[in-house]
Design brief:
alpha/beta, five-stranded mixed sheet, 43% helix, 2 domains, D-Maltodextrin-Binding Protein, domain 2
Length: 431
């Protein structure tokens, strides 16, 4: 029998005692669909209102905001779905948690007619992240990816032009070292570290999990490979040679942006929010306009010159609760939420890139994000993190064994990580 994730099993047990939310769709008038959203700048609430109006009285959408931390979002939703909470109609889901919720039947099956509509013109990375076992189980909404951001002055001094010629990690590491600058990467013990590891392994042509849909006891890790060793070499070199500065072990996305914006900034891998954030800093007087003028962007760095990079993939997909009393209406609402027009609007106002390629031609998108075409190309190359019901064990295990970056060694870390995660999956070791 396939075993469920231990973390989810614990959640299921706890859910027995968890009170169910009152079903907001009961009573007179059109049903009210509850959409559980990740925190944002208000864009999902605006779309909820627009789709309510567009339904012509068929339904109303009310948003409920989940915790800011992705793991806490997962736990709250899993607890309530395990208790068959019927108030969960629509969910904004972080892609790595989709298999864990799909496997036990917590997500309503996507009707074929809906699937055919919501998968048209969707970037490859987002389409892959919306599936489990090659079947669409969620609706692509917005997609995210990391770019290589660079200070034009530093790149020029190194003889590099990332905008026209792909660069490797070795090249940007050398450029930063030669000019006494810092690379901006995410080295804190958190999900962002897993994102970095996965992108390095995938860019080297490997996979963290060779058979992600297998039962826990049969999962095979792909870290003890040339790709895993290449990833460990890059991360360990950056840590040991202090190429990212002293804050690397605690550096998250915002921390690395601060490093990049500073006097020692050079190259950074990060999500598109950095463009809006830096421009906002110029507007409020925190930064000079010359900082923005010195920022360039390109595809994620390659591990080797002969292989295209496999950038990180993130974003949000829409899942429909299996226990909702209004799944048909919830799918209608999700189709409305995920239209290209709403995706373009959400990108231009909240900075979250579309999963639908047609949204990138919107004039408002072009004006707000001049690198929109590079983001779209990156999403076509992007590779999701391991898609498995045991993602929590795998991700946490990676963070435990690849941190701090200065401790990472190509000869020992891949094996140490493989042994540890395998022991956790077999129930022989605790996280």
């Amino acid at each position: 029998m396939r075993r469920r994730s231990r973390a989810l099993a614990l959640v299921v047990g706890l859910a027995v005692a968890a009170p169910l939310a009152a079903c907001a769709s009961e009573g007179s008038g059109p049903p009210t669909l509850i959409w559980y959203i990740n925190p944002d700048a208000g864009g999902q609430s605006v779309i909820a209102g627009q789709c309510t109006d567009a339904s012509n009285g068929a339904y109303a959408i009310k948003v409920e905001t989940l915790p800011r931390d992705a793991s806490a979002q997962r736990e709250q939703l899993a607890r309530r779905l395990a208790a068959k909470d019927s108030s969960i109609d629509i969910m904004s889901l972080d892609p790595p948690f989709i298999p864990e919720l799909s496997e036990p039947g917590f997500l309503a099956p996507v009707p074929d007619d809906v699937a055919s509509k919501v998968t048209q013109n969707v970037v490859a990375g987002a389409l892959a992240g919306a599936k489990w076992k090659d079947k669409l189980v969620t609706i692509p909404f917005w997609a995210n990816t990391q770019l290589l951001w660079y200070r034009k002055s530093v790149a020029k001094a190194a003889g590099l032009d990332p905008a026209t010629t792909p660069v490797t990690w070795d090249q940007i590491m050398k450029a930063a070292k030669d000019q006494n600058k810092y690379l901006a990467v995410q080295g804190t013990k958190a999900e962002s570290l897993t994102v970095w590891i996965n992108a390095l392994v995938a860019s080297a042509g490997g996979k963290i999990l060779e058979n992600p849909s297998a039962p826990a006891e049969d999962l095979k890790l792909g870290l003890e490979t040339p790709a895993g060793e290449a990833a460990a070499t890059i991360m360990g070199t950056i840590g040991k040679q202090n190429l990212a500065g002293p804050s690397l072990p605690t550096e998250d996305e915002n921390g690395s942006l601060t490093v990049f914006q500073g006097d020692k900034g050079s190259f950074m891998v990060n999500w598109p929010f950095v463009w809006s954030a830096t421009n906002a800093g110029v507007k409020d007087g925190t930064f000079p306009q010359s900082l923005v003028d010195d920022i360039g962007w390109a595809l994620y760095p390659q591990v080797t010159a002969d292989k295209p990079s496999a950038p990180p993939y993130g974003g949000i997909n829409l899942g429909i609760g299996a226990f909702s009393h209004h799944t048909d209406l919830a799918f209608q609402a999700a189709e409305c939420i995920a239209t290209p027009e709403h995706q373009a609007q959400y990108f231009a106002t909240n900075g979250n890139p579309p999963s639908n390629t047609t949204a990138y031609s919107d004039p408002a998108v072009k004006a707000a994000f001049p690198m929109a075409d590079v983001i779209r190309q990156s999403l076509e190359q992007a590779v999701p993190r391991p898609q498995t019901p045991y993602y929590n064990e795998v991700s946490t295990g990676l963070q435990q064994t690849w941190h701090p970056p200065s401790s990472v060694d190509p000869k020992t870390t891949p094996k140490k990580s493989t042994d540890y995660i395998t022991a956790v999956l077999h129930g022989e070791q605790l996280l």
